[in-house]
Amino acid sequence: MSAPDLPDVPAKFLVYPNHNVIALLPTADAAAAAIADLSAAGYDEAFVLVGPEGAEQLDLDGHHHGLRGRVYRALGHIGDEHEELVRAAEHLRSGGVALRVHSTEHRARDTARILQDHGAVHAAYFGTFTFESLGG
After folding, report:
1. 20-133 belongs to which CATH class?
2. What is the pLDDT of residues 68-127, one digit of tens each?
């Protein structure tokens, strides 16, 4: 079986996911199917991190992004973002998938429902100065 075609991760440092839902999925196939359903529902901005390589891209401590990255990640320790980053990194290291999709606060629960239909074990919405766990 060939690997599913997934969107490329942006080359820039992965910063605070403002107006995004992040979900942890079991496989790349589940993520590809979720992206297809999200696209059919009108979502157009999503990307995926896969496995241990995805954990490296997530760069939990910012060391791959110089002083600016380390300072940014250090500041993230004071909010909910750090706990979510740790959860995502652990999930990725164990072979899982993290999917990030642009969503408004009003659509966040619908977004999470689509992702949970594809096996998301956890989902969270990140808004401007707000964070909400959407279960999983």
Report:
1. alpha beta
2. 555 555 555 556 666 778 888 899 999 999 999 999 999 999 999 999 999 999 999 988
Q: Is 6 left (phi over 0), alpha (psi -120 to 50) or beta?
A: beta
Considering Cα of 119, then 125, then 131, then 132, what sign does the dihedral take?
negative
Q: Which two tokens stand for residue 57?
A: 């891209």
Torsion sign across C-alpha atoms 43, 53, 81, 135: positive
Residues paired with residue 126 on neighbouring β-strands, in sequence order: 20, 131
Q: Where are the domains of the chain?
A: 20-133
Q: Please give the structure tokens belonging to residue 55.
A: 């954990």
pTM: 0.78
At residue 74, the 3 state secondary structure works out as: helix
At residue 1 the predicted structure's pLDDT band, cuts being 50, 70 and 90, is very low
Beta strands in 5-121 (DSSP E): 20-25, 46-50, 97-102
